[in-house]
Amino acid sequence: MEHAFYNKLIDNNKAWVERKLGEDSEYFSKLANGQQPPLLWIGCADSRVPANEIIGAQPGEVFVHRNIANMVLHTDMSMLSVLDYAVNVLKVKHVIVCGHYGCGGVKAAMSNSSFGLIDNWVRHIKDVYRFHHKELDAISDENERFERFVELNVKEQVLDLAKTSIVQGAWNKGQELHIHGWVYGVGSGVVKDLDVNFKCDKDLEAVYQLKF
Ligand code: CO
Fold it and tell me: Which end of the chain is more exposed for a tag (fewer CB within 10 A), N or C?
């Protein structure tokens, strides 16, 4: 079964190339000229949340970074490099942090189980629980608490994006850069905008504001 899936991949690719070239014979030669995506997507690695597909974006339109539970950790060199390149070279206008209901990483953070090495990644999500434990502990229904935790985690990641020297540096230069928090429903396909929008450092608590 797994082999059958794998063995089809190259054929799928060939069929896709033919279909694209059928629509536009210069499709790939145009893409080869470079990219200027207006959007950076920071999402979960979950296989059910394919960035381009759920927002109807074409190749060339979204710069993508994905990890477990769509985390923005200011010590994560991979995330920082993607963010720096997207903001300072590609000059994206929007960054979306997109979480999703049913996120396994967030679920793990709610439990006391050990999952091995990943415990150290999930630890950051547990910190989000601690920041919001009053609100979360007050929700008696476990699934409702899980869904709210997913939303609060996205909000914290949006905040952590705004705290980075990269985002604040862009704002300081007067560069247009909006950051947003979304949650995707894997069971509905629908995106919910959490309305946590930042577009300048004045939206941040004073202690995080950097002077350049
Ligand atoms: Co997830």
Answer: N
